[in-house]
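Subject: for your reference before the review

Hello V.,

The reviewers asked for a structural picture of the protein, and I figured it would be easier to keep everything in one thread rather than splitting it across files. Below is the amino acid sequence we used in the manuscript, unchanged from the supplementary table.
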Amino acid sequence: MTKENSSKHVGMIAIGAAMVAASIYFAMVSITLAHLEVVSGQAPFDMRPFGYGPVEAASLLDALGMEGRQYYLKRQIPLDILYPALLALTLSCTVLWFGQRLPNNRLVHLAVALSVGSALFDYIENLGVVAMIWSWPDVSGPLVYATSTATIAKSVTTMLAVSLALLIGFIWTRLPKADVRV
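And here is what came back from the structure prediction:
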């Protein structure tokens, strides 16, 4: 496979993954997370980028009630199992696609690492949320703090990965275009 074909494949993967990831994100924000917020009157764990403590976690879990906690496990968590990997794939492929002409690959490598790190922290957050729901009403403080730390780390790494992807895209628009051969 030539470098040009490889580039087209990476670009197509980036576009396809972005479409699926955006659909799942839209479903989470407009359906599952919105439902959890309506039921509890509070932002779900996933939507608290600055974290939360044991009191806030207990308040949310209590306000969700049994049905809300089950909804979190059976509706939100399955979507949030798919989304982090798709977002990481989207960001990584986009960065690789636009970054192939950059003279220095450090930004590309950093952006890919942050994209993968974002997904890993999201999965750790999901495991923590599941553990908190399963252990309700006896949720331990260390579990809440660990899950909250994962939430914050996910938020920071996602923001940095998206920012780097945008920066790399901007740099790509400023680079001289490659010769087109027919």
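For the response letter, the relevant points are probably these. The chain has a mean pLDDT of 94. The CA atoms of residues 45 and 129 lie 8 Å apart.

Happy to draft the paragraph if you're swamped.

O.
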